[in-house]
Amino acid sequence: MSGAPERAQAEWLRRVEAEYRSSAIAQHLTLWLTQAGASPDLLHAGLRIAADELDHAELSMAVYRAAGGTSTPQLARESLEHPRRTRDPLEWDIVRVGVDVFCLGETVAVPLFRYLREGCEQPEARAALQRILRDEVRHRDFGWTLLDAMLDGPLGAELRALVGRELPGCFARVRASYAPGFAAALTEVSDDDRRWGLMPPARYAEVVTRTLARDWVPRFRARGIDARAAWEGAATP
Ligand SMILES: [Fe+2]
Ligand SMILES: [Fe+2]
Fold it and tell me: How far apart are the CA of 51 and the centre of ligand 1, in A?
C-alpha cells in the first residue's frame, strides 16, 4: 500500500476530536436523564455509549498514528460544553439533544460508516470502522428508545410538539454543517484516501437523502411527527 495521504491523516485526527465531542454529549445527556429519573436501563445504555465513544477516539488515534501523524487533537472546549438552553423543563433539553444527536446524527452515521468501511483496506482504519459501525447501530437505537420513553411520559404532548418545531433547524444543520465536517471539506477523494476510510462529500449528500426516506420519515411518522415537512421547511444553506 502506498503512503498515507495527508488528507487521511487530517481527517482521522478530526475524527478523534469528534469522538471526544460525542463522548461529552453522551455524558451530559446521561446526567440529565439521571436528574430526570429515567429508567436505569436507559442510563446504563447512555454511560456505555459515552465509553464507546472514547474507544472510538482511541481507535481513530491509532489510525492517525499509522498514517504517520504526530500531532495531538485540538479540542475546542466550548464545543464540549452543553449548558441548559433555556429555563424550559429539563425534559425539553433532553429531547432536543436526543433527537439532534441520536435520532438524526447516529441514525445517518450507520449508513455513512457502512459506506466508509466498504472502501477501506488499511488495517487500522478498517478495524476502527468495524467497531464504530457495530456501535453506531446501538447508539441509533438508543436515540429512538429515548424518544419513545419521553413521548410516552407525562410531557409527551408538549415534547412531540417541541420536536416538530425543532426538526427544521436540526435538518438545516445536517445540510449545512455535518456534511463538510464529516468529509473535512474534501472536494475529491483519491483511491488511496478511500482505502484509508474517507468519502467524497457528494456521496454524503446521497446517504443523507436516502436516510431521510428510509429512516427519518417513517420513524418520525410512527411517532406522529412529520419529518418530510420539517425537511422541506429546513432552510437550505
Ligand atoms: Fe463514535
Ligand atoms: Fe456514536
Answer: 10
For residue 202 the three cell numbers come to: 457528494
Over residues 2-44, the pLDDT tens digits come to 566 888 999 999 999 999 999 999 999 999 999 999 999 999 9
| Nearest ligand atom owner, CA of 106 | 2
The torsion angle over the Cα atoms of residues 178, 91, 45 and 18, rounded to 10 degrees, is 20
Among candidate residues 111, 215, 205, 226, the one with its CA nearest the CA of residue 161: 226
Ligand 1 centre to CA of 158 (Å) is 31
E strand spans, the chain: none
What domains, with CATH codes, occur in the chain? 6-233 (1.20.1260.10)
The overall pTM is greater than 0.90: yes
174-221 pLDDT tens trace: 887 555 544 455 567 788 888 999 988 778 888 999 999 999 999 999
